[in-house]
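The freezer alarm interrupted the setup, so I double-checked each line after restarting. Inputs confirmed:
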Amino acid sequence: MTVDHRHPSADDPRVMLEDESELYEPIPPYAPRTEREAEFYTLGDGELFINIGPHHPATHGVMRVVMKLSGETIVDLDPVLGYLHRGVEKLCENADLHHTIAYLDPLEYVSSLFCEWPAVMAYEKLLDVEVPRRAEYIRVLTGELNRVSSHLLAMGFHALDLGGLTPILYSFIERDEIVEMLASITGQRMLFNYFRIGGVNGDLNHEFMSRLGDWMSRATEQVEANVGLLNENEIFVRRNRDIGVMDAETALRMCWTGPNLRASGVPYDIRRAHPYSIYPEIDFDIPTRQEGDSLARYLLRVDEVKQSLRIIDQCLHQMPDGPVMAKVPRLLRPRPGRSWAAVEGPRGEYGVYVVSDGTDQPFRFRIHDPSFLHLQSFGRLLPGKLIADWMTVNASLDPIMGGIDK
Amino acid sequence: MDRALKSRLEDRFGDVLAGPVRQRHDETEIRIEPGDVPDVLRALHDEPAFGFGLLADLAGVDTGETMQVVYHLWSETTPDWLRVMAINLDRESPRVPTVVPVWPGAEWLEREAYDMFGIVFEGNRDLRRIFMPADYRSFPLRKDFYLPDDAARSPGGGVRPMEATHAPRNAAAGTVRKVRG
Amino acid sequence: MEVTRDDAAGLGTGPADATAMGSDQPGNVPGALVVRDATAVAAPIVVRNELWSAADPAAYDGGRPSDVTHLREVEASGIAARDDARWSGILEVIPTKADYVLDLLRANSLWPLLSGLACCAFEMMSSATSKNDIDRFGMFPFRASPRQADVLIVAGTLTTKMAGPLVRLWEQMPEPKWCVAMGDCTCSGGRYKRSYATVEGIDRVMPVDVYVPGCPPRPEGLIYGMMKLQQLVKDRRGHWPERAVGPTVPEGV
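Predicted 3D structure, all chains:
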């Protein structure tokens, strides 16, 4: 059915779509182009397709999943991405080095500082800039605050996707407080644009320290109270236990990183495996769990929040005085070459690969996002489970579509 | 910077390396021809002396004259990141064998490289577009992507012509930005 | 480089256009720093409206170009307080008391559709949760189904792939409906204006009533935008009957 949109009726806004049929059909309107597509889009006996998304209340963003179901049991899944693809890598190729940092913020928007961090590290390697120690401490401090906020939000959304409407409110209270703290030094509640090549944009100030002090004094009990809602909730535990089990070997082969990998038993954390910044001087543990199910991923994030609070505490006590920005020329021309840097973000390894041609624009700016690879594993974790289990696995993997789609 | 890693790589892969092993800060870089990609990466993954179990990234690069596929690997045996660059892919029809048998997680990374550059990964069972719509005709991250092409058909009404925004500054229209190495 | 131009046709028409040359390039004069007399006013860039016409020919001063060029003159003349854009068509009748009550009901229980696409969604959720509570305005239920929603708050970048589904959502919403463009990306394309895959502002594909700029706008900013929307509802103004679809930012800017 095609509607001629060049002559809109009185009820239709002017829409520049040519064929609307493709918007409803889960099956693409062309012959399958790959083996996997052919295999997926042929229906067996008693199977049907359901299209989930791209607009759906699971708040991880705009993602579309085509599910092949037999009754309510998932037979196979095909995630369709790209609904938030903004062309960031191409935009960064035409931007100054400093502008690229601002382009990176909206990728993983709940943990923006971790998006900026590998870029500034890669540039600092290309420019051979040494970052002052106070700037490194501030980076770690604000980064860990961002990690706490991101994990608490992940826990809140985990519960929200399963139907619990209360924990998200508690998460947002904590997130609002942390974000106001960071706004007092960065100027922005969300897309901070705080890290610079050679340091950070501004020093800590009184408002930040007083807010941080208030928050730290009750952070531990607050986090305990918030997670206490869920840890022993029978519905939550039964919906999460043994759902989406990923073993260590397969997780490594599927290029998983971050809390999802550590919940499957592999104690890989870039902060310890490939230390950067001042993490060697800070004492913290790497929580690891062996079960690999959704409940383990949730509990691991709780443990990581506690470790982050330890790190913040040590940063506050050990912070040296000094400049917060190295002396870096305004017009930066890095040497021609290639540079890779990766940090441990709340979702995993966040990496940036920069190819420089000697001008002040990066020649190739590659962003590696961890959630991209986590989503790939739906096809391994979910066949044989119910649709509700897809929701659980999706929430426990904690994807952020801004980063996935770039 | 791990000097021992450099000598181990030269001993093991000396005959297939297409250039010297370079090291800078905490990265070690080797270059290989695209046909050697599955053997070298499988060796790096399986052999216990190397043990590069984690594929950190798979990226395509358009240098303006050739294409490259760049793999970043991590191993517990060395404190360095290892960068494996498959160089000298033909820019008009780039083809590289896939590493999906070693890391099944590379399937989507290869899809992304195909979507953005047009690099065909031979052996990938699912090489279709991942970010752009399935009927998109161009490869956006190529250096000659200046045309409005498919954007004009989009519901957005067509963005401005790319010549006004993405052409290199102070350069004639149609020049392709190049890089050495 | 000329800063004052009288013709709008020269804007953004090619690679050598003045607006495309970076002011930090050697040889280019940074246009904004041209020193002028402090009381001089640059000639305004006037782009004639060819997209739509108001149903009431007397609206918007009858289409006369404005002869007021400075903000203090605008404020002194009181033009801003006199806005003639009213709903037309079958709603031309003078609103009765019943209509007034209906408008109050609509304004105080605007149910948004969950249309959080990207980062602005988080500030929208933050405005919906405890600290900045839009439940006190009646906007708590973020409906998942467009059939039950009043206002579409588009929060986040609209990409060309998502434009189709989003317009479909807008079409599925029953009238009366309003649209709020939250965030820079939906107002004008934002920081992704030069990208190959984004729609430069949702007003290219759907009529927008309230623009809330910011990247992302603070929750207080969104609440201010929603209160403006409530005022719009009570004044019976809005774009959806007139179907004013088209870019509000002139080409080339």
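Quick read of the result. Chain C is about 25% helix and 5% strand.
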